[in-house]
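Suppose you are handed a protein chain with no further information: no name, no annotation, nothing but its sequence. What can you learn? This example shows the usual starting point.
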Amino acid sequence: MIRLSRLTDYGIVLLSYMATHREPAINAAELAAAVQLPLPTVSKLLRLLAREELLVSQRGVKGGYTLAHAPEEISIAEIIRALEGPIALTTCTTAPSGECEYEPQCPVRRPWQKINRAVRDALEQITLADMSGAAALGRYVINPFSRQPATRPARHPAA
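A reasonable first move is to predict its three-dimensional structure. Written in structure tokens, the prediction is:
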């Protein structure tokens, strides 16, 4: 089974929430409460995502975290790379040549590289906006974290 870590899954949940709630900044405690994840886990993920420049950290009374880019500009592949490292189904898909002792006679190295490229390319095509429903439908944003349908316009003045 190919599986992402729980931290990466949680990281995507946090970023998806932030994509649908475009407040000026949200702090770790507010975010943890909103997505119902433990505060230490949320704090750790926010620091990692800020270090990888997917989030911007703002200090001060009104500080917190904001997305560094629009949700449409952040690919799921970027998030996975930030939290997991290079996207690789096998070692030979990212390791430098000569790192594997079986490489000279390996009959499946090239097919694995082709598969890895296809997976990576597919993940590059999916954005945070796609994952979170942050793309506006008409004038309204789908909010997957709310039990109520969204009723506020998404960054558009009232008509």
